[in-house]
Each structure stands twice: as structure tokens, then as C-alpha cells.
Amino acid sequence: MAARERVVRMSVEQPLWRALTAYRVLTLIYAALLAGLGREKFERPWVAVVFLAFLAVWTLVTLPRVANAASCTKRFLGMDLTVALAGIMLTPLADFDAQHMDGPTLPSIWTAGSVLAFALKGGWRWAAFASTLVAAANIVERGEPSKDTFHNVVLVWVASIAIGYVVEVARASERTLARALEIEAATRERERLARDIHDSVLQVLAMVQRRGTALGGEAAELGRMAGEQEVALRTLVSSGLVPPTRVSEDSAEGAVVRAVDADATESAESDLRALLAVHAGSRVSFAEPGAPVLLAAGAARELAAAVSAALDNVRVHAGPDAQAWILVEDEPDAVIVTVRDDGPGIPEGRLDQAEGEGRLGVALSIRGRLRDLGGTAELISVPGQGTEVELKVPKVSRGKAGPAR
Asked: Is-contact 257 8, C-beta < 8 A?
């Protein structure tokens, strides 16, 4: 089977970085408008013009830096905070009366964007560090801080720490979700391998055991050895000692899950009738619609394999003389395949007992396949009246869906 890597990227904080980018631009415009409206109050307007011009260039040039956590390095954060603090301390130089007023500083609320970058990058501790420096600069710049100054300082300090804490919680949640997907993927991979092993190796070993026991002599010893290997292999499959196909990581752009997908997700379609027609014979009757029954190629193969597993159960448990029927129904939203036999049926509780013994033909080869396709497998058996297996696969299933992102 061809395989390809599918990447599922989850990031709660990435929208916050995009919001921070917009915030920096908008607050730059706001700071420029405030300076323009209050230009008559500046004793040295050229200081304000030079600083705001530099701030505009700095903001626009560094927009890629605040696009995500990876590009927002510690060095950049330090430089960005230095620009904000410099703007606060230059305010008295542009307007000597600013020390005795409650007017805005030169960078105004642009400074909060620098503090928020610390919060998004390093969490609440980094936010507390940056907001404390900004608070100290504001107090020094004001000389005798007023009630409004104190209110603004506390507001920035609390808000930045809260956002930093939320980001830390979001990152922890992403890692937990990525780990859950990793476990789910490992389980699915184990089940897929178990199905393949059951459909090939285990059935051959079981046949060798039966034939060897029937022939006797040296063949009986060979059959006994095959039986032991069958039990050992079933135990290995059931124990789950199969490496996962997905790994998770906490990257700068959020938690990432990389998955190796089999080509069951390919977009090409196959006619299910052609895959099931090979089972028709003197003991198996096949009823099909007159028109092609199209499913995604991978989904069609998995459904055909489930039908083959059901027929194998008929041959093994109902006997070589049992009659079986395959009925294919092509409905608008689903494809239904029914496999019925006239055997003795399955005693109540036998399936649970077989699963407990590691015999997972129905659990994995049939139900497991249908579950992976987003479908269902219903088994109805009445002792003395045969067994019926109904396999239903939706037309739009996970086997046909494109890779999630």
C-alpha cells in the first residue's frame, strides 16, 4: 500500500498572534493621531516626530516577527520593549509639562502590544516581567503618578498576566489533544495490522494445525507447532506491541500531529461489484445492482476485505457445504452489503469468548474495518437458522475524506 504523510496542525494561540499584529498597526495609527491632535502642546515637536517616524518604521518592518512564536525571539522581544520604554522616557523631552499631566505618552497604548508579545511567547511570568518594567517607566516619567496613571498601569499588568496564563493553559491542552490523537492513531494502526495478519498468517497457521492433526504422524507435530505459533502471534497482536504511526510535538505554531496514512484516502473510485464478484460460485450466490457501485478505491477494498472475512467465517464455522448469499444495495447515501448463510448460527456469547481468546476475526477484520470507514457492521445470528452480517458504508466516509488540517 502506498503511504503518505498527513499533518494535522492545532494551534489555539496562532489567532492571538494575528490579532497582535493588527493591534500593533492600529495602535501605531492611534499614537500618531494623538500626537497630531496635540501638537500645539509639544515644546519640542521634532522629538515626537522623530520618535513616531522611527516607531512607524519599526512596527511595519517587524510585523513578520510577531506573526508566530517561532519568529518572535527573545532578542526581538528585548529590543521591542526597549523601543516602548524609550518612547515613554522621551515624552518629557518633547513636552516638559507632561510630568504634571495625565496625557498619553508618545507610544501611548502601543506599549501594551510589546507586553502582550511577552505574554504570548513566554506565558504569565514573562508578561509580569515586561509589564513591571513598563509600569516603572510610567511612574518615573510622571514623577508624581496620578490615580489614572496607577489605574492604567495595574490594568496592563493584570491583563497581560491573564493572557499569558491563558496561553499556557492552551498550550497544555494542545499537547494533551496531540497525545490523545497519537494514542488513537497507534490503536488504529495496531488494528489494521491485526486485520492483515488475521486475513493471512493466522488463517494459514490455523489451517496447518487442522490438517496436521487430521493427517497424524509427523504432520500432527507440525500442526501442534503451528498451533503454538498461532497462539503466540495472537497474543502479540492483542498486546498492542506495535509502534504508532503518529507522533506529536509542541511546535512554535501549535501542537502538530503527523500521520502516515495508507492510500485508503485516495480520491479514485472503484466499482465494488468487481471486487465482490470473485466470491461467486456454487456455494456463494451474488446479487448486485445493474449499475456500478462506486466507492473510494481504498474504502471499496476494505469493504471487500470485510466481506471476504465474513465468508471465511462461513467456511470455517458453518462447514464447507454451507450456502452463502451476498447482496449489494446501492442507496443514495450509503452502500449496504449483506452476507447471509444457512449454517447452524452462532451460540450466544461465543463472539465475546472468541475475542477474549484472541480470535479477532469479527472484531477486527469485519467491525474494525467498517468503523475505520465510518460505517457499521451488524451481526444477527439465530441458532439453527444461520447468520447474517450487514455491512453499511456511507458514501462520504473517512476513507474518502481529504487530509484534515
From this structure: yes
Residue among 129, 127, 128, 152 at smallest CA distance from 139: 152
C-alpha cell recorded at residue 177: 489533544
Element (H, E) at 300: helix 297-313
Q: Would you tell me how many other CB atoms lie within 10 Å of the CB of residue 204?
A: 11
Rounded distance between C-alpha atoms, residue 27 and residue 65, angstroms: 17
Q: Are 48 and 42 in contact (CB under 8 A)?
A: yes
Predicted pLDDT at 30? 92
- Phi, psi of 148, deg, nearest 5: -65, -40
The pTM of this model reads 0.50
Q: Give the integer Cα–Cα distance in Å for 141 and 135.
A: 10
CA-closest candidate to residue 364, choices 203, 193, 223: 193
C-alpha to C-alpha distance for 163 and 157, rounded to whole angstroms: 10
What's the first-to-final CA gap in the chain, in angstroms? 23
pLDDT in tens, 285-322: 999 888 889 898 888 988 988 888 888 888 877 777 78
162-194 pLDDT per residue, tens: 888 888 888 888 777 777 777 777 677 666 666
Whose CA is closest to 272, among 260, 254, 251, 288? 288
Residue 194 has a pLDDT of 64
| Positive/negative CA dihedral, 98, 155, 121, 30 | negative
108 touches 59 (CB < 8 A) = no
What is the helix, strand, coil percentage profile of the chain, to 5? 60, 15, 25
pLDDT cut 70: percent of the chain above it = 72
Task: Give DSSP secondary structure letters for 13-34.
Answer: SHHHHHHHHHHHHHHHHHHHHH
Q: Please, what is the angle between helix 74-94 and helix 124-142, to 10°?
A: 20
